[in-house]
Structure to design on (507 residues):
């Protein structure tokens, strides 16, 4: 689908131009209000919304600790996932939020920078917000500084770098209507140049996300290909691939549960389930042993449930797993 | 092959489901039935005939896991919806829910499109195979862990058109 990203300097009428473009093209406008609706639907509320929206985290804020960074990461993941998911099925006009970087390698995207001279921006801000010139200038500088710092912090790029844009439009000389017309024409020309299917887009984003996301920023334990642990058995590797395929986050053997202790308090028996699925809060034990040989494992799981009743654990027997593989038409690998 | 559900049993149960769904969605506005290709087509057709409320029928298809040899490493949509589901009530129709992996992905995907509500109606539930637990709002039949075919369910594209549900005793 088509994506038009509009990066704008504060006071340059970027929002207005974006709205006009959305009206002319019928594309879905993703602006501050729309993003706020989405964020609220996934439980990110005010004041957090305003705190993170196009704002960098200052050194003083960073000193507040990991909790802030974690919340902000959740916000950004939610925001970027929202853009990607929508772009698979809708034509979009996205205002700000680094969309020009997110969709940089997406061929159908059109990236636009809206700017204007300081004087014309001051005049517009004075008019809109009923401010005097000095206050308007301060507000413009402050807002631009925030946006620039946010984009540099999140994406590591300079928003003034012209190589990220197809069009740079000076609304100080063109006016919003004319600017919108230029963008619509450019979008139409791009669309005529070629289309990409939804499937290709989804695949591309997913692969890009996997390749670009640093390990420490990935989901709590989603081990993707290339970082797979040393599995004890080929069936575990196959199962992990299956989970990856269906985008289920997992951890391999993340926790050992003590089950028996001697009189000194030393653990004499323990159990380490093969997988943990954090989104389901579920431990899984995969066994390829024949059904009649799994009694010992069953006994351990019964014991685990007695001692840790809050822990959800499920055993996938060899018969079940072989059935699963056959369902997908896969021949079982060697034991 | 052993018959587990006869044509009469299926017909009666699908009619019951249709009545229940009609009552639940009565007066709520547009309902979008999203049938998951290809297995749920037979179920979707029969169920939709039993509905007494207005609805839109749409289809969605996703790729299946194909093992390490698969060229594509993640699930993807092979046929997307043609209707927008934003702020509309959606009922996802599945032929069978076993591991819950497919359903989990579909639910996550559809939820991002901001439907007014999203529920699941599965013709068959096989809870013994469940990995990801997702509550089923409507369910035709719950079965033990058999490899079943018929009424849309296939084995290597065979048996879909059976009017009964049968267990394959030996995997061919």
């Amino acid at each position: 689908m088509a994506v038009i990203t509009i990066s704008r300097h504060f006071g340059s009428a970027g929002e207005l131009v974006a709205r006009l473009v959305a009206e002319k093209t019928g594309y879905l406008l993703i602006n501050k209000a729309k993003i706020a609706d989405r964020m609220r639907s996934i439980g990110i509320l005010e004041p957090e919304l305003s705190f993170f929206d196009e704002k960098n985290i200052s050194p003083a804020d960073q000193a507040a600790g990991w909790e802030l960074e974690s919340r902000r990461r959740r916000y950004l993941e939610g925001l970027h996932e929202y853009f990607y998911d929508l772009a698979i099925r809708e034509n979009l006009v996205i205002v700000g939020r680094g969309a020009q970087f997110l969709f940089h390698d997406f061929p159908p995207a059109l990236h636009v920078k809206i700017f204007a001279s300081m004087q014309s921006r001051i005049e517009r801000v004075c008019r809109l917000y009923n401010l005097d010139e000095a206050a308007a200038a301060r507000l413009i500088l402050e807002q631009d500084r925030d946006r620039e710092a946010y984009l540099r912090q999140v994406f590591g790029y300079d928003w003034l770098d012209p190589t990220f844009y197809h069009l740079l439009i000076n609304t100080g000389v063109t006016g919003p209507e004319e600017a919108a017309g230029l963008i619509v024409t450019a979008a139409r020309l791009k669309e005529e140049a070629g289309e990409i299917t939804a499937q290709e887009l989804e695949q591309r984003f997913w692969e890009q996300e996997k390749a670009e996301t640093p390990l420490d920023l990935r989901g709590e334990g989603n081990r993707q290909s290339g970082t797979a642990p040393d599995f004890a058995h080929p069936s575990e590797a196959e199962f992990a691939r299956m989970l990856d395929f269906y985008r289920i986050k997992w951890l391999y053997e993340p926790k050992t549960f003590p089950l028996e202790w001697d009189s000194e308090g030393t653990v004499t028996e323990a159990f380490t389930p093969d997988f943990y699925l954090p989104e389901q809060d579920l431990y899984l034990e995969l066994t390829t042993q024949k059904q009649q040989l799994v009694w010992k494992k069953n006994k351990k799981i019964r014991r685990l449930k007695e001692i840790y009743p809050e822990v959800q654990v499920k055993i996938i027997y060899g018969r079940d797993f072989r059935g699963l593989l056959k369902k997908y038409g896969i021949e079982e690998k060697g034991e | 092959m052993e018959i587990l559900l006869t044509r009469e049993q299926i017909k009666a149960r699908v009619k019951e489901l249709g009545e229940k769904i009609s009552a639940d969605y009565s007066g709520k506005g547009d309902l979008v039935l999203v049938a998951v290709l290809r297995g749920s087509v037979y179920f979707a057709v029969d169920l939709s005939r039993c509905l007494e409320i207005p609805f839109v029928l749409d289809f969605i298809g996703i790729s299946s896991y194909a093992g390490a040899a698969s060229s594509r490493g993640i699930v993807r949509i092979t046929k997307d919806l043609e209707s927008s589901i934003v702020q509309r009530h959606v009922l996802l129709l599945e032929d069978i829910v076993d591991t819950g992996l497919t359903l989990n992905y579909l639910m996550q995907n559809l939820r991002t499109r901001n439907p007014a509500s999203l529920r699941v109606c599965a013709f068959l539930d096989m809870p013994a195979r469940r990995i990801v637990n997702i509550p089923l709002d409507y369910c035709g039949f719950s079965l033990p862990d058999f490899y079943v075919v018929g009424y849309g369910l296939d084995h290597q594209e065979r048996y879909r058109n059976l009017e009964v549900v049968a267990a394959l005793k030996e995997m061919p």
